[in-house]
Design brief:
With 1002 residues, the chain is of the alpha+beta class. 67% of the residues lie in helices and 9% in strands. It is built from 26 helices and 17 strands. α25 links the parallel β14 and β15. The longest helix is centred in the middle third of the chain and has 79 residues. The protein starts with a strand and ends with a strand.
Length: 1002
């Protein structure tokens, strides 16, 4: 990687654009970058790093810091452009950080986003081709081409000698951190952490398995009541001890189970014998009680025998009376029928005339036939009378229709007389509503802009007051910022005047000077009365930063308020006839007037649809009334002819009705009287016949009843009727006799049983004693069964726990093997294993190999710088109780001794750290894929060298040109200005720093 050109604008201390031609500086091989403290030498290196990676090294990129120069004009962009060759490609990288810029419209500032550009040079066309504008793409492309991260680049290309001097004196842990960042050994540390995690996980699994085994042992001990194993989780013999405990418990449980089985069998035998004795005693007692109860029942039967005989006699007489019951029923039915017929005859006789009260059935029938003949002759007159009534109804309907048609004709004539004026009025109102709709639409288009102008006028008046307030705040903020800036510059200038005294205060006898590197301090500078320290300067700068932020914020607020006020003014005056800004009152009156006119027009326009519907309804009504008028006129003509025809028909019907009416008021009335007489005669004839028939039937029933009673053995029918029993009484008496008979049979059968008679002859039974013996035998059986169940459950539980323990032991075997293997690997990589003799971690082992390469590469240059005296060697020996692996020693060829690099003097430390930095650059370059680093920068430390050593160091640096490299030295040492002709000077001025190139084609 070779740098060609760097351009910085408004970056750091550089207020204007500064161009640096690295090709001209690199032509000499070595060039010097110098300038006073605070001028911006480091900012040049920061610009290179920012162009490549979009960030500056270390703490200078901390949050809150700004890359923009305080000396830059407001309209100038902060920008860095770097032209370089890497991977045989010539590229140009341009970056702009996020920064404030003036707004394009109005006052104040806005934040411009960060931007990046990457271009490549096409040698064929001689032009630059744009590759990307994406921050991410450009960062990935640069990192891939350079092959190093930002931290590696800052350590390898921008060689900070102070860091490597500390590296020489640091312990193994500090060296490991630096080498880890450069060589990215995080994957080896990740392997260590991964193995440690696996070891912890495996250990947790094994311990969990041991705890489960120990829990099973505790449960076995609880079941057996014995002791628990002595081994603890993690001990190798725990599994075997638990298995042995389970085996012994199972054996003891099986023996107890056999004993309990025998005890249950014996108890069951005794309980069965006691049960048989109890059953025999209970059976004997039952038989004896049954025999005694049967004898009591026989004595009761003998006592109730007379009552049973009386009931049997009543039942026998009732059975004889049942033979006469049909004749009794027939006679009762005949008597009821005759009584009913007589009552009906008496009722019909009361409706007959006095001369027909004693008439017979034949006489009544003959009179009924004559009346029917007279009724048949009235049918024609009845039809004529009905038709006459219909004609009267038709006449009434015609009169009603005539009145209705007269009303229709009068109403139609009245309505049609006012039709033309009504139609003209509706048409005019429709046209007026249509004009109002167009006017409302026009007013709506004017109303909304007027409302917006009114709202804008309100905002304009409010923002005018806010703008005045913001302007006063901005003026005050600018004054405070200028005062703070002047105060800070004054404090900074006073501190720079006494910086030599401040540096001298930090000098230590024998220690090298931070400026010149010399260990002798013959005349240190003294502080004056007006000297200020760094804390005072930082406080002044902090006050200036706060004032600057306040000013920027005030400018943003003022610009935003002014922009909003201008927009409100423009909107409020939009469409005005003159240039005078309208007031809020004028706009309010204008909006109110437009609102009123629009509401009136809109209300009138809303009537359009209703008026059109009213006109359509009126036209439909006009047509309907015209049709009704014509129809009524036609019906009036038709009704005249209908009336004439009805009059002729009515005359003929009146003559026919007069003939059939007789003395009655109407034909229907005359016919109704005849029908009533006929009905009375028919009913009277039927009742006379019914009385005669029922009398004959009653006489026949009396004869049959007397005959039936005599055959059944009764003297009279009344005696037979008295012997009859109702169905319920008959069933109850029969059930009593059947129950007595069944009881007598049952008693006889039971007294005849041999077993019952034999039991009665034996001594009285005693079942209570047998039951007590049986209860004792059952209690003993339950106790034995309970003991057997307990022993069986204990044996089953022990068997289950033993199987669980066996399963757990088999499952734990592979886990324990895995844990042993992982623990050995984790201990080996962590440096805690006995197999790792030097106690080196895996990451330290890899870094030790890299350090060994760095030491070999650094020795090649260190021997030349020290005239062959010193050699850097890597040491993996342990120091005290610390782990080995990252030791670094120097071998002194003059004494032949090997000693720690921390014992080197100031000048020796410088060229040793320089050799180490150059060696590290070579190794990191090879590690990054062999990318050539053609431009290097070395920062400070040359002041600690004497003239001879300085010449040797410069010879070594000059030898880098053999590999086509250029080295930039950043130093304050004045002797270097005489020895190195190619120089880049950074000059500090009040308006910002500038750069000047000297020598080597400048």
């Amino acid at each position: 990687m070779r740098l060609h050109r760097l351009s910085v604008t408004a970056f750091g201390p550089f207020g204007t654009t500064q161009e640096i031609d690295f090709d001209a500086l690199s032509s000499a091989g070595i060039f010097l970058l110098h300038g006073p403290t605070g001028a911006g030498k480091t900012s040049v290196l920061d610009a290179v790093c920012y162009a490549l990676y979009g960030a500056v090294p270390g703490a200078r990129q901390s949050p809150g810091t700004s890359l923009r120069s305080d000396h830059a004009p407001a309209g100038t962009y902060t920008e860095v452009t770097l032209e370089l060759t890497v991977g045989e490609r010539r590229l140009e990288v341009t970056r702009r950080p996020a920064q404030p810029r003036p707004k394009r419209r109005g006052g104040g500032f806005t934040t411009e986003k960060a931007q990046s550009w990457l271009r490549a040079y096409d040698s064929g066309t001689g032009a630059w081709a744009e590759l990307s504008r994406s921050h991410q793409e450009i960062g990935e492309e640069i990192t891939q081409l350079v092959g190093m991260s930002r931290d590696q680049f800052c350590q390898v290309v921008l060689l900070p000698q102070g860091d490597f001097a500390r590296f020489l004196r640091a312990d193994a842990e500090a060296r490991g951190k630096l080498l880890g960042r450069l060589f990215d050994t995080r994957r080896f540390a990740a392997v260590e952490e991964r193995l440690a995690d696996l070891r912890r996980a495996a250990e947790q699994q094994v311990r969990a398995g041991d705890e489960r085994l120990l829990a099973l042992a505790h449960r076995i001990a609880q079941v057996t009541g014995g002791a628990v194993v002595d081994e603890r989780p993690g001990e190798p013999g725990l599994a075997q001890a638990v298995l042995t405990l389970a085996a012994v418990a199972r054996s003891e449980a099986r023996e107890a189970l056999d004993i309990a089985d025998s005890a249950v069998l014996a108890a069951e035998s005794r309980q069965a014998a006691a049960r048989r004795v109890l059953d025999a005693e209970r059976d004997l007692a039952a038989r004896q009680a049954r025999y005694a109860e049967t004898r009591r029942r026989r004595e009761a039967l003998e006592a109730s025998r007379p009552e049973r005989d009386r009931a049997q006699a009543v039942l026998d007489r009732s059975r004889k009376a049942d033979l006469v019951a049909p004749a009794l029923g027939l006679r009762a039915d005949a008597e009821r029928e005759h009584a009913t017929a007589r009552a009906a005859r008496e009722q019909s006789r009361g409706r007959l005339p006095a001369d027909l009260a004693d008439a017979g059935a034949e006489q009544l029938s003959a009179l009924e036939r004559r009346l029917r003949e007279e009724l048949g002759g009235l049918e024609s007159a009845r039809r004529a009378e009905r038709r006459s009534a219909e004609i009267a109804g038709e006449r009434t309907d015609l009169s009603r229709q005539a009145r209705a048609d007269d009303e229709i004709l009068q109403d139609a004539a009245h309505w049609l007389g006012g039709w033309e004026p009504r139609r003209t009025e509706l048409t005019a109102r429709i046209e007026a509503s249509q004009e109002a709709a167009a006017r409302a639409e026009h007013l709506a288009g004017r109303l909304e802009p007027a409302r917006r102008r009114l709202a804008a006028a309100h905002r304009r008046d409010t923002l005018a007051a806010q703008a005045a307030t913001a302007e006063s705040r901005l003026t005050a903020a600018r004054e405070r910022r200028n005062e703070a800036h002047e105060a800070w510059l004054d404090v900074k200038a006073r501190r720079l005047q006494g910086i030599a005294a401040e540096l001298a205060a930090a000098l230590t006898p024998g220690a090298p000077c931070q400026v010149c590197g010399s260990a002798d301090h013959p005349a240190p500078a003294r502080t004056g009365t007006d000297h200020v320290d760094r804390a005072t300067e930082d406080a002044a700068y902090e006050a200036f930063s706060r004032a600057e932020e306040s000013r920027t914020a005030a400018e943003r607020d003022t610009a935003a308020t002014a922009e909003a006020w201008a927009a409100a003014r423009a909107e409020a005056g939009e469409g005005a006839a003159d240039t005078t800004e309208p007031t809020v009152g004028e706009l309010v009156r204008e909006v109110d007037e437009l609102t009123r006119q629009h509401a009136d027009a809109h209300a009138l326009a809303a009537q359009t649809h209703g008026l059109r519907e009213a006109l359509a309804r009126a036209e439909r009504e006009y047509e309907s009334r015209v049709r009704a008028q014509r129809d009524a006129e036609r019906r009036v003509a038709a009704r005249t002819s209908q009336r004439e025809a009805l009059d002729r028909e009515q005359t003929a019907l009146d003559a026919e009705v007069a003939r059939g009416r007789g003395e009655s008021g109407s034909v229907a009335e005359h016919a109704s009287r005849l029908e009533r007489k006929i009905a009375i005669l028919i009913d009277a004839a039927e009742t006379v016949r019914s009385v005669e028939l029922s009398a004959r039937r009653l006489k026949e029933a009396d004869g049959r009843l007397a005959d039936a009673a005599f055959r059944a053995g009764f003297d009279t029918p009344a005696e037979a009727a008295a012997a009859l029993l109702a169905d319920g009484e008959h069933r109850a008496l029969q059930q009593r006799l059947d129950a007595w008979q069944a009881e007598a049979a049952a008693v006889a059968d039971r007294l005849a049983e041999p077993e019952t008679r034999a039991a009665a002859e034996r001594p009285p039974a005693d079942p209570s004693a047998a039951e007590a013996a049986h209860t004792a035998a059952e209690r003993a059986l339950r106790d034995a069964t309970s003991a057997l169940a307990s022993v069986r459950d204990r044996a089953a539980e022990l068997g289950r726990l033993s199987r669980q323990a066996d399963t757990e032991v088999r499952r734990l075997g592979p886990l324990r093997e895995e844990y042993d293997r992982v623990a050995r690997l984790a201990g080996l990589t962590a440096g805690t294993s006995a197999d790792n003799e030097r106690k080196m971690r895996l990451e330290s082992y890899v870094l030790a190999a890299r350090l060994e390469q760095v030491a070999a590469a650094a020795t090649a240059r260190l021997q030349r710088m020290s005239s062959g005296r010193y050699t850097l060697v890597h040491s993996d020996a342990r120091s005290g109780g610390k782990r080995a692996g990252l030791g670094l020693h120097v071998v002194d060829a003059w004494t032949g001794n090997e000693r720690d690099t921390a014992t080197l003097s100031g000048g020796e430390t410088f060229f040793a750290s320089l050799a180490l930095a150059l060696g590290l650059a070579d190794v990191v370059t090879d590690e990054a894929g062999g990318v050539r680093l053609d431009t290097l920068f070395i920062d400070e430390g040359f002041g600690s060298l004497d003239d001879q050593t300085l010449d040797e160091v410069l010879d070594v640096l000059d030898s880098l040109r053999e590999r086509d490299r250029s080295v930039g030295i950043v130093s304050h040492v004045g002797d270097l200005r005489r020895r190195i002709p190619a120089q880049l000077e950074v000059v500090k001025e009040r308006t910002g720093s500038v750069v000047r190139q000297k020598g080597a084609g400048a």
